[in-house]
Amino acid sequence: MKWTLALTLLLCPLASFAQEKWTPLFDGKTLTGWQQCNGQAKYDVVDGTIVGTTAEGSPNSFLCTAREYGDFVLEFETLTDPVLNSGVQIRSHRYGAEQVTNIFNGKTTVVNKQPAGRVYGYQVEVANEKSGASGGIYDEARRGWLHNIASDPAASKAFKDNQWNKYRIEAKGDRMRVWINGVPCADVTDPLDQTGFIALQVHQFKGEKPAQVRWRNIRIQDLGRHAWKSIWDGKTQKGWTQRGGGKWTIEDGAFHAVSIDGNTNVGFMVGDQSLTDFTMRIKVKIERGNSGVFVRTNPENMAAYEIELDAEKRTGGFWETGPGGRAWVTGPEDNAAYIKGEWNTLYASLHGHKIVFHLNGAKTVDLPDDTKGRLDGVIALQCHGRMPTEVWFKDIEILVPAK
Question: Which residues 6+ apart lie within 8 Å of 18 measured at CB?
Fold first, then answer.
């Protein structure tokens, strides 16, 4: 049965949150509801503000909320000594044990060792006028910058030294947006974390005297959360139809597709569910040849957006198939973000004409306004027939509001 689903309304105007209830995260008197994680910086309550003071020799310190949040609007004001870097963590976590992170930074894979308990996750930057970076989004202790707004002529000038600056942060589904003093700053689509704690950072600092950062009027609108929902049971072909060439089997909770010698027909496993705006996550592994994950597919002629999957190059790139399709659109030319011989995670976020793909957490495609493109269709899995191909797909999920 076909049906159309608008999964997440991530493009809501600000007015859509106007009727939601505000809840203070800071009572103006105590640090009730907060706990310190990492570092030895000192956090005090002074005249209705939280004051964070650096400690010589301390690593980054964080004052974390005791509870986690998913979708929300967060507002606060901050006044920071211009010599000090700071930030506010959202949807953040702590490593449960010592962790080795292997992160692709756009050019190469960087290996870092993170100690147990280390805070990591999305950080909204608080810096100074000179840096122009305030209001950007940084992935603390993981991938680094997701959106550095220092080159944006308007956003980079929104933050003012030696005065209170008002921040607004909206997180809904896989989209996060930031404003400072009413000026739009970062706008990030990233699917890795849907929930986590909020934290106030005091950055490590070495100076002639301690530096301070202050926060006040911290409040939140709790909008619930999003969660991943499976759209394939991993056991049967229910909800999917095989077409074309290739041999398709279900093994160990995965679709396993292999091309057939002498048969050059492209093979597909086509989903029954038609989608409009959605974010999906799927694990893939290609042993040889070429394949792809089709989204917004017309099941009549298989015209689609294709997330490229190849044993040698361009995995995570964007190809448009079918009559009038643009063929190769954009994406990496190499396979640097792909981990050979292992399960790799592809993400596709399609909301209106905004198209974003990730491979193993590395952004491979970001088209903010692809007005030439498609707006709905089904998901399909491909196995090429014009070359020897073997490919696996499993854990096919979409992001939906949690009940």
Answer: none
Instruction: Return the pLDDT at 399.
Output: 98
pLDDT at 18: 59
CA distance 216 to 165: 10
Write down the pLDDT at residue 319.
96
DSSP per-residue letters across 262-310: T--PPEEEEES-EESSEEEEEEEEEEESEEEEEEEE-TTT---EEEEEE
pLDDT tens sequence across 171-184: 999 999 999 999 99
Question: Taking CA 216 as the corner, what is the angle to CA 207 and CA 199, rounded to the nearest 5 degrees?
Answer: 70
Classify residue 341 by burial, with Cβ atoms within 10 Å: 0-12, 13-18, 19+.
exposed
Which residues lie below 8 Å from residue 362, measured CB to CB, with a gap of 6+?
A: 103, 104, 105, 106, 143, 316, 337
Q: Which residues of the chain have pLDDT under 50?
A: 1-15
Q: Kindly report the number of other CB atoms within 10 A of residue 340's CB atom.
A: 11
pLDDT at residue number 13: 41
Strands 390-401 and 290-297: unpaired
Compute, in degrees rounded to 10, the torsion defined by CA atoms 157, 41, 124, 136. Answer: 40
